[in-house]
Amino acid sequence: MTHRVLVCILFVVLLFTASACTQSESTNQLQKRTDSATLQTEKEDLDQRLENDQKSFLEFKEKLYSLSATVTLSKEKDAFRIKYEILMDDVQSEFKNVIQSFTLSPSMVNYVDTPDLINTNAHNEIVTDLKPNEYPVGLSLSRAYVLKPANDWSVNNPSYLEDMYIKISYGPDDKRTEDYWHIRAVPSPELTQYLSSKK
């Protein structure tokens, strides 16, 4: 009888420990952000920097992470959409609380049906950390814009269509690192063909 009691007690202890560890891991994975970044602050930062200090957006050079960008075209019922996407991956060290934001060339407001070109994940409430060889293996951010129906893509399709101005920030709240990049998004074959047909 004593042996059975000890076995039962040991089982309960192990079950409790496993449950506590699972809860602890879940808590660590779902940490709430406490930094001050918002959609509005990211928009103001990118807009002002693009207007007053565009040269501060550097051409991307391999750092402790990789960064790529694409632009694609999709046809929906009533309109064409052009989608921009960035991907940060292949991290070589730990990046805590990664926030991604991007905007396009201001001239793109002539071609897409929106006055606001900004996109950011600063509206997410949960922290996203990136670590080498751990999940998630990368972090992407995308936005699709509706193309205006009466676009004039003539005269050497606008080169600025591929221009993306990107901000990657990370680190503890009191010591954030902010990287500003200018990247030329790689257009999909469908987009290239569509633009050629509009010349």
Mean pLDDT: 84
Write down the CATH class. Answer: Mainly Beta
As a percent range, the share of strand residues is: 25-35%
Number of domains as seen in the coordinates:
1
Q: In oligomeric terms, what are we looking at?
A: single chain
Number of helices: 3
Bulk shape = globular
Overall helicity: 25-40%
Low-pLDDT stretches are: 5-28
CATH architecture: Sandwich
Structural class: alpha+beta
Number of strands: 9
Q: What strand line-up does the widest sheet have?
A: 1-8-7-4-5
Taken in chain order, the helices and strands follow as HHEEEEEEEEEH
Work out the radius of gyration: 23 Å
The CATH topology, please? Immunoglobulin-like
Largest sheet: 5 strands, mixed
Keywords: Signal
Give a short summary of the structure.
This protein has 199 residues and is α+β, with helices and mostly antiparallel strands. The chain has helices at 2-29, 39-52, 189-197, and strands spanning 58-59, 66-75, 80-89, 99-104, 119-120, 138-146, 163-170, 177-184, 186-187.
